Amino acid sequence: MNTMKLSRVFQYGVKFFILAYATYLAVMHQLKGVMEAANAHAYCPFGGLESIYKLILSGGYVEKIMPATMILLGVTVLLVVLLNRAFCGWICPLGTLQALFDRLARLLKIKKVQVPQNLERWLQYLKYVGLVVILYFTWRVGTLVYAPYDPWAAYAHIAAGWEELSGEFLIGLLFLVAALVGSLWLPNNFCRYFCPMGAFLGIVSKISPTRIARNEKTCINCKKCDRVCPAQIDISTKPRVTSPECLACGDCVANCPVDKTLEFSASRKIPIRWLAYGVLTLVIFFGPVWIAEQLGYWKTGYTSAAEALTNQSGKLDPARIKGSMTLDMVSQEFKVPVEAILKKFNLPGDTKTNEMLKKIAGDNKLPTEGADGFVSGVRTFIAESIGFTAVAPAVPAAAPPAVSVPAPVATPKAQPAKPQETKAAPAAKPTASAGQPAPGAAAPAAQKTAAYTVESVQAQFEGKGVGEKTLAQIAKENNIDGEYLKKRLAANNFTAKEGETVKDIAARYNTKPIDFMKQLLVEGPSGK
Asked: Would you tell me which of 202, 251, 319, 469 could form a disulfide with 244, CB atoms 3.0–4.6 Å apart?
């Protein structure tokens, strides 16, 4: 076996091992839960890029992102700066999946599609647009907005079953199928046109001194390099490949019939053989990971159920209950008897309480999430059972008097109203509260404290940019009583930070701004 063939065996051995290990972690997370294996986002460097804004702004992470994710982002950037896009050619498991289908197509002698160069260039811009859009909305909303569309996230949820795939990850699944099947005719199509991480690495690679260099003296102009390049780069006419679209896959180097005609080189002077390039890739990528682990900085998941269920305020939060947690775990941490949960949802007495909530839901033919979902129902039931009240930052003294969405103020339990008193009285005087004048002072028009319906919320707020406003702004513009909003927040177990927009709050509860406003303002069966 010659040196180049040995290098390729080594390369694909590394790629398959990483793909197999990533698959194992994904399956373990779905079958055993969050305490046994971290979610796929924790191991994806793009998650670090999505979370970097929040890390800089508040020192925290977007949900599902861990310290290890930020370390992986750092070493990936370091790798690209030193060795160009070696991450794409040697590490990325989604790239490996596409490469597998590309190799299958070659065995089946499927003819590859050649995209016209002008069209290819415009299609490549799609991923850069996608990168900007994804980062903007993730940084704006504070959640992983790309996750439902991410083909790797869909792949990582295959073990969860069809219900989860066809629900939250349906679009991501379609992207995955299109990427893999499409690679039979159009190699690495997702990498070329849609991958946001690839777009970011392409930008960073512009400063890398390492490129594929072509020896013009020994080149025989056979153009094999052009034909096998999965990024459709014109290699045979250039002394160096400077395109940021180069995936560092090595196909052109491996297929060149003249030894040392195509090689990676650093700063035009130092040639790097393919095997050495691979070894350097592994050292630069995994070396810092090993060091971080030894120093105690490497963290991919939670060390305990209590940590997983604790919010940023340091309180056990029912909203953090996940479908991959067990019934026993929820019961023990929140001190709510298992029997009470089983009775609440009419579950059989022999239910295995050490199984994940989503498994229990599936076994009993219950939806997992949504209005009638078992997991979402458990969150609500636990919150009600422990009297959980979401806490938000207190209002600064200099804040506007309307409503700054502070933590709900505890009030004595009201006596049940008589039937004839349940309707809002138009002439009722509002009580003095935050945002209202003291008795005897000149008062503005009476502030609204109730009497909202689904239809009236729809008419008053839909299509009027409510998502871009804070609750304080909405209260002021619509003359809504501040104390009433506090009570509605508490009744729905909502948290709302000062200055946070309705769109941000709604995204945290996986709903639309207008639907959030309906649930917040409407009381009774149609509301909360």
From this structure: 202
